[in-house]
Amino acid sequence: MHRATEVANTRITSKMLRLWHSSELGELGVPDRFVDIFQGMAPRSVISKHYTGREFNQLKRIYDKANLKVFT
User: What are the tens digits of pLDDT across the range 34-65?
Assistant: First the structure.
């Protein structure tokens, strides 16, 4: 993050990056429960906790489908 802060000429924190990441994924239609998984957060609802798949291939498909690009 130090290098990104220098390049952007503004302080960039991990909180700012999490907020940007979750906002972008939300706008791209990724359900909140998967955003939580991608960010390593504990599930907040019964559906997230017990009925949301966490298999790597499934999560990769969801993330790839969002086509989120950090650097262009």
Answer: 998 889 887 777 777 777 777 888 889 999 99
